[in-house]
Amino acid sequence: MSACCGTTKQVTSNLAPPDPSKHVNYVRGMVLEVDEFTQEFAYLSSRDRWLAREAIGYGTLRGLALSWQKDTTNKPLPSVLVTSGVGLTPSGQLVCVTSNQCADINQWLEARDTEISNKFAAGATNEDLTLYVTLAYCDCKTDDAPVPGEPCRSADELMQPSRVTDSFQLELSYEPPLQEEEYAVRGFSAWLRKITIVSPSVNLDTFVAEVRAWHKSTSDPASLTISETDVPKYFATAFRLWATELRVAAAALQRFKLWLYNAPYSNEGATNETDFRAVVSLWTPDTSSWPGNLTVNTSDRKTFIEHALPLWDSEIVPKWYSEFCGCGAPVCADSIEDRLLLGALKFKIIKTAGNTWMVDFTSALTTSVDESFRPVLLHLRALQERLIPTPEIGSILPYSVAPHSLAPLNIPSAGHVAMGRLTPGKAQTTPTFGNLKINVDSVGEVSFTFDGYQIPDGTHDYIVQVIASFIGNKSEPAVRFFEFNNTGFVYKVTRSNKGLTVAELKTIEFQVTVSIIEQPN
Q: Which residues contact 284 (CB under 8 A, 6 or more apart)?
């Protein structure tokens, strides 16, 4: 042993990960070690991601287009292109793909030949395959520099990375990210769009109860009616409930349902319902797979799921609701697998004797790209533009651009022109908008008109919604649009494919909403 290698004192860093909710309290005389700087960075980085994730969401911000590459003759190649761009992952991490990236699918298939073969029946030679393209954040240590330290160190210890560089990871996988919150947002928005905007408004308490139960199969948004004047108040209430009660629970519910529906089933399963419910009641936001010893008989699948879903409200939520989201990262269940979905590649693969799996270009429907489930984030300027009425183009152009050198904006306008509740055989006692009128023309037909009505001629069109309510023991009649004519628009009213008599038509209440779409000159 060399004489220079005396006894040295080793400083051991804290092995626990830094707490993202703490930052360093700097005081005079404090000795700053690596741990202090690591802790401060963790705090600042976590708050950046926390703000981005909670206030903005996650998804594609710019670029990252997905496509199959083609040759000079426009024939597809067995390679996939992802363009440069920026995304925000479910944990709030910004990811930048600095240049276009491509992947040779045949090479990917070749490296996993046995693995892919095991997905299909023995001896399969021609199959359909779907791969999901995902983007994730990663970093790498760079810029080695000499660092001071103890004597007698090895050459590897003399140099240490001095920087950590942001990077990215593009992957192909057989399964997509769960992205429950993305699906919850889409589901809640689709539910709201089905609400009927027509007088009178349903009671606000009833509306709130329906919003809280929007994810349940018994919820029927089409049965709710909201007056146009009450829309701001009612929808503001819905968005408040989404933020305060539904957002996190809805995302976790999507994860729970996916886990529940993926329970292992077999025709030889012997698990009883008591054991099944016991496993379900132990679900947590981190649960991803089923116990290996649990298999449900296929014939019991529907019954078991129906009995398991009520456990969400009665047992799971009370125990685990506070675990869905905290004030540190990750901030939601989606963050557990921090991948951003870019799209799905659907294509055929073929395997010939002596070869590995390859993309099959002999089929007319060889390849496709499905980006419909990709989360996308519009920046605030784009959203702002959607909220502001569009002015004349000349007033928003830079001074150096001649307004008349560009084509004018050709954006149609739209709005309500008539609405009301009408019963042909009764005097009108409720208010109508647009002087809406109804008339019984003949068996099985009713016509409507309003002030300013003109038969659609290409410069404008009407979107009409008519709901019929019948009071009595008979079934509700069917109502369908028939035609626009010079005096109004006509609807057919039938029951069991037969037109209602004039007397029957006069007992029906019709709820009518008419909107107009006009093309600018």
A: 320, 323
- The set of residues, in sequence order, having a beta carbon less than 8 Å from that of 142 and lying 6+ positions away, is 161, 162, 163, 164, 165
pTM for the full predicted model = 0.64
Report which of 465, 457, 451 is spatially closest to residue 484, judged by C-alpha positions.
457
What tokens does 256 get?
A: 């729970």
Q: What is the pLDDT of residues 95-116, one digit of tens each?
A: 999 999 999 999 999 999 999 9
Residues 6+ apart with CB under 8 A from 165: 139, 140, 141, 142
- Between CA 265 and CA 244 the distance in angstroms is 37
Rounded CA-CA distance 245/243 in Å is: 6
State the virtual CA torsion across 269, 274, 276, 282 in degrees, nearest 10.
-160
Transcribe 447-489 into DSSP letters. Answer: EEE-TT-----SSEEEEEEEEEE--SSSPPPEEEEEEE-SS-E
Q: Comparing C-alpha atoms, which of 325, 331, 243, 286 is closest to residue 46?
A: 331
Q: How confident is the model over 358-383, as a mean pLDDT?
A: 81
CA separation for the pair 274, 255 (Å, rounded) = 22
Q: How far is the C-alpha of 450 from the C-alpha of 416, rounded, in Å?
A: 12
Torsion of CA 175, 179, 184, 189, to 10 degrees: -100
b/e code 285-310 from CB counts within 10 Å (16+ = b): beeeebeeeebbbeebeeebbeebbe
The helix (run of H) or strand (run of E) holding residue 150 is: none
Contact (CB, 8 A) for 510 and 467:
yes
- pLDDT tens figures, 255-282: 788 888 888 877 776 677 788 888 888 8
- The alpha carbon of 113 is separated from its chain's Cα centroid by a whole number of angstroms, namely 33
Rg from Cα positions in the chain: 32
- Which residues are bridge partners to 469 per DSSP? 509
Q: Is 38 exposed, middle or buried (0-12, 13-18, 19+ CB in 10 A)?
A: middle
Supply φ then ψ for residue 446, to 5 degrees.
-130, 150
| Bridge-based pairing state of the strands 101-104 and 76-82 | antiparallel
- Report in angstroms the alpha-carbon separations of 439 from 33, 226, 369, 392: 86, 26, 52, 42
**From CA 240, how far away is CA 26, in angstroms rounded?**
40
Please report the beta strands in 249-333, taking only residues with DSSP state E, as ranges in sequence order: 265-266, 296-297
> What residues does each domain of the chain span?
1-55, 58-177+338-370, 181-333, 413-518
Q: Whose CA is closest to 106, among 343, 367, 344, 341? A: 367
Strand, coil or helix: 81? strand
* Biggest CA-to-CA distance, the chain: 115
The Cα 240–Cα 238 span in angstroms is 5
**How many CA within 13 A on the CB side of residue 19?**
4
Contact (Cβ atoms closer than 8 angstroms) between residue 147 and residue 160: yes
